[in-house]
Amino acid sequence: MLSFQPSSPPDTVPSPPLLFADRTHRMVPSETRALFSMAAREDVVSLAGGMPTPDALPAEALREVLQEVLTAEGTGVLQYGSAQGDPVLRERMCEVMAAEGVDATPDEVLVTVGSQQALDLVTRVFVNPGDSVVTEGPTYVTALSTFAAHQARVVEVSMDRDGVVPQALADTFALLAAEGRPAKFFYTVPTFQNPTGRVLGAERRTEVLEICRRAGVLVVEDNPYGLLHFGERPHRALCADAPDGVIYLGSFSKTLAPGLRVGWVRAPRTVTGKLVLAAESAMLSHSRLTQRTVSRFLETRSWQGHLDVARTLYRGRRDAMLDELAATMPEGVSWTVPAGGFFVWLTLPGTLDARAMMPRAIEGGVAYVPGTGFHTRGGERNLRLSYSYPSVSQVREGVRRLADVIRAEPETGGAARLREVVAR
Fold first, then answer.
1. Quick check: helix, strand or coil at residue 45?
2. Which residue in 128, 138, 317, 330 has its CB near the most CB atoms, within 10 A?
3. For 127-268, where are the alpha helices, taking DSSP H only?
4. Around 166, how many Cα atoms within 13 Å sit in the side-chain half-sphere?
5. Which is nearest to 339 in space by CA: 161, 207, 206?
6. CA 150 to CA 70: how far, in whole Å?
7. CA within 13 Å, CB half, 278
8. Helices H / strands E in the chain, number of each
9. What residues contact 30, with CB distance under 8 A and at least 6 apart?
10. DSSP tag of 43
11. Quick check: pTM over 0.85?
């Protein structure tokens, strides 16, 4: 009989090397993320997270709808589904987009796990390592993480109060083409932008679409906030005027409930086919239960009534933040005035650094997101404030605390203090 003796005890066998892919070197957390656990303390008012207020989450209605779905559809709704998503829900998604002028058909729509997965799938389908992606500067922080994970070269284009600057966009496209590295797509959040709350003006939308058309650059329109407007009607989507040149990303995370994780992407049919294949390889199929729950909510409950309630709640919180900013902020501080969505973008005076100031803000009982997280470089004087989650009284108190922190912050220094707090 053959017997085998180990050459060394099992606990001394060396572990195999961790052969991470090259792309993981660009997957790095924000330096300030380590501070967010401190921001969760009960004595800290968080104006950082872009979460819906609990008051806008229709928990009771969703409980009823979930019971109705299980009763009507039984175990079938607990089975696997298709990678493209439930066809009835895709019809409902087309109806939601129609409010913003988009004329879409269900075969152009892919259901996703929030719009974040939609962005990841679009990037996976279009971007090779080293390819250029053009964004607004600043832009959505997790979009930057997605592009980095796919090893894209991110090129920012400047913004003003009316959104991305058209001439700067045209110049960027021309420069990239001259370098032999043309943009694969232009990523934009044109309506109540994250992080600034700005809206791309109607005339400028037409100009931006024409610039992209002439340059042969696809537009990726991320629109999670468009229906949370504080006016009489929503803004017309870019996709409504250029359906062949725009990929539209939508989500129920901000308008219904983020825990459902239901979003979608609308694209030309040839693109949708590739996205379905990418989705199938990523997660096989979506949850039929959550899809049917959202679909039945849209079919049997008052979607517009729900949106009206949410808009009223967010308008009140926005007003409270703007009133308190005007009443308490020291001279030299400026901010945007959003007409919808969740965010205010604040600019500090002089040489104040929002990232370096954050430890003092936490100590002073208020949290925000430093502007550097929304740029590939720059943004030191900026910070994002969210009024969506805290109550009206918390919004007011948080702004007052922030004003006190800004008044006390020295014009220089502070970076070492940030590193010390993160290292604890």
1. strand
2. 138
3. 141-149, 166-178, 202-215, 238-241
4. 16
5. 161
6. 39
7. 20
8. 14, 14
9. 141, 373
10. T
11. yes
> φ, ψ for residue 313 (rounded to 5)?
-60, -45
Helix pair angle (354-363, 415-423), 10° resolution: 60
Return the structure tokens found at 122.
């679009």
Kindly state the helix (H) or strand (E) to which residue 222 belongs, with its residue range: strand 218-222
Tokens of 239: 């996709």
Q: Can you tell me the distance from the alpha carbon of 312 to that of 301, in angstroms, rounded to the nearest whole number?
A: 18
Q: How far is CA 252 from CA 19, 97, 180, in A?
A: 37, 12, 39
How many CB atoms are located within 10 Å of the residue 287 CB?
A: 19
| 218-258 residue pLDDT tens | 999 999 999 999 999 999 999 999 999 999 999 999 999 99
Q: Cα separation of 32 and 15, whole Å?
A: 32
Backbone phi and psi for residue 305, each to the nearest 5 degrees, phi listed first: -65, -40
H/E element, 249: strand 246-251
**CA atoms within 13 Å, Cβ hemisphere of 306:** 19
Largest CA distance in the chain: 88
| Tokens coding 110 | 């892919």
Per DSSP, the three-state class of 422 is: helix
pLDDT tens by residue, 120-173: 999 999 999 999 999 999 999 999 999 999 999 999 999 999 999 999 999 999
**Nearest partner of 341 among 235, 236, 265, judged by Cα:** 235
Q: How is 329-344 classified by DSSP, letter by letter? A: PPTT-EE---SBSSEE
Best CA proximity match to 390, nearest among 382, 381, 401, 380:
401
Q: Which amino acid is at 256?
A: L
How far is residue 219's CA from residue 123's CA, in Å, rounded to a whole number? 12
Question: Cα–Cα distance between 49 and 398 in angstroms, integer?
Answer: 13
Q: Which two tokens stand for residue 424?
A: 């604890």
